[in-house]
Structure formats: structure tokens, C-alpha cells
UniProtKB/TrEMBL annotation:
Belongs to the short-chain dehydrogenases/reductases (SDR) family. Keywords: Oxidoreductase. This is SDR family NAD(P)-dependent oxidoreductase. InterPro entries: NAD(P)-bd_dom_sf (IPR036291), Sc_DH/Rdtase_CS (IPR020904), SDR_fam (IPR002347). It comes from Aquibium pacificus. Pfam families: adh_short_C2.
Amino acid sequence: MRLKDLDMEGKVAIVTGGSQGIGRAISVALRTSGATVVIADLDEEAATALATQFAAEGSEALAVRTDVTRADQVNEMVRRTLAQFGRIDVLVNNAGGASGSNFRIGRLLSISETDWDMTMTVNLKSTFLCSQAVGRVMWERQSGSIVNMASITASIPWAGMPAYSAAKAAIVSLTRSMALELAPYIRVNALAPGLVETPRTSRNRGPEQLDQLLSNVPMQRMGQPEEIADIALYLASDVSGWITGNIVDCNGGQVWMSRDGRPEFRDAARAAPG
Ligand SMILES: NC(=O)c1ccc[n+]([C@@H]2O[C@H](COP(=O)([O-])OP(=O)(O)OC[C@H]3O[C@@H](n4cnc5c(N)ncnc54)[C@H](O)[C@@H]3O)[C@@H](O)[C@H]2O)c1
């Protein structure tokens, strides 16, 4: 299998949080390469709109309203996927974030216990719940690829988001444990993006904050959701058949720069949101 053969025809892929932001771009990339996409999202309206768009473009798709923090809803998502398509080849554990409708970002000394728990649950527990439910199905077929969503903050914590950074670091560790336990049938990898241009990114940060964060990015710009989606597609596909337990840094060079130990990076990190 070579890159030019990347073809997901006949494969069924679940994308959690697949209706907006990076998840939406991943859903689109998978669909464009021929996969049947299941959009599992809390936002039923957005998920249904995207599935309807895919259907109008000639691809079968399914929208399932799913709260990935709830085991019963995750199991129902798997049940409906199998009932409609009979198999699951790819799981992208994309749903998550540093804040949401029922939890907020916060510094160590001020974050509430509830916000801490929700941050951990939405990012880390959801990855466990979906991976266990889907992993059991993949294990039976002795085939599958799981892509988790970590973050640059897993290795370079930004001040103001200790819970999110810890959750994403745990996802990195979980990814490696999963890769070990699920080999040789199921591959498990993760993406660790830097700042990506989604509606949430601009909503949560003013232009000055963004400028400051970008001043530490050698490529001097945010990533685009489509750039993250292309890597997810590569990891989901058989083209990456010998890659497992890998964390792909995609951040415009920021990890490399921080390892350089530059003081201006540390200053910006201290001034980051929170
Ligand atoms: N945007 C960035 O700069 C960036 C950087 C690094 C990592 N990430 C990670 O990438 C992922 C996507 O981020 P984004 O910026 O595209 O987010 P986003 O807020 O634009 O989209 C998140 C999607 O997930 C859904 N969702 C939220 N909670 C859910 C739940 N409990 N169950 C099911 N669906 C749920 C939302 O409805 C939405 O469709 C997250 O895991 C985030 O932590 C983002």
C-alpha cells in the first residue's frame, strides 16, 4: 500500500465531535477518501446537517447524538453504527477541549473541582469509553485504527490550563498503552496539535493573545483544521500500517522551538490564557 493508493472505500469511520472544528475537517477528509462516516456529536443539529450534506454529495453517513462522557450513549452509538453498517474500521476520538458549555478553564489555585472533573471526563474518560466500546468490536474482526486527539499542551503546558494539559498528557500515555495491548490487530496513534484556527480558538482568545502565542511558532501562523485532518486520515488508513503508539506533533515547529529553551517562549507561556 502506497500513499497514492490511499482509499477508504468500504471502510466505516466514527468521528466523535465530528460536526465542527477539527472534527468536521476530519469527517470531510474521511468522506472525500471514500469512507462511510458516523458523526457522533453532542450537537445533534450540526451533526445531522453534515450527514445530510454528505448524503446529498452521494455518500452514506450517519449522525448520532452522543455525549461521549456517557457510557450508555457511547454504547448506543456503537450499536446504531453496527446496525446500519455492520462494521467499524476507524475511530477518531476527537471530542474534547479546554472549556465547554458546562466547564471552564482555570488556574491551579482557582479551578473548581467540578471544572477539573469535567475537563478530565470530556477529554480523557471519553477517549477510554469510546476506545473500549469500539475496540471490542475491532478486536473481534482483528482489524482497526484508532486516532486520539492530544495537544501540544501534553508536552508543553500553557499556564492557565493545568487540567486540560494533564488530561491531554494522559491521552498520550493511554495511546501508548492501547497500542501495546491492542497490537497486532488494532493500531492506535495520537495527534498533538498546536494552535489550530477553529471558531473556538478565536472566540476564546483576543488578537493580542493570539499574536503572542504565534510569536513562538516558527511557521508564524495557526494550523488549519484541514492540515490536522490530513494527518488523521493518514493514520486512519492502511497506508500507515506499520505505525502504532505514535504521537504526531503538528504545531508549526513550536515543540522544536521550546526545546531550544528560548526565554521568550517561557515568557509567552506564562502569559497564556487563564
Ligand atoms: N483548536 C485547537 O487549537 C486545538 C489544539 C490542540 C488540540 N485540540 C483538540 O482538538 C479537538 C477538537 O477541538 P476543536 O477546536 O475543533 O473543538 P470545537 O469546540 O470546535 O469542536 C468540538 C466538537 O466536539 C463536540 N463535543 C463537545 N463535547 C462533546 C461531548 N461530550 N460528546 C460529543 N461531542 C462533543 C462539539 O459539539 C463540537 O462539535 C479537541 O479534543 C481539542 O482539545 C484543539
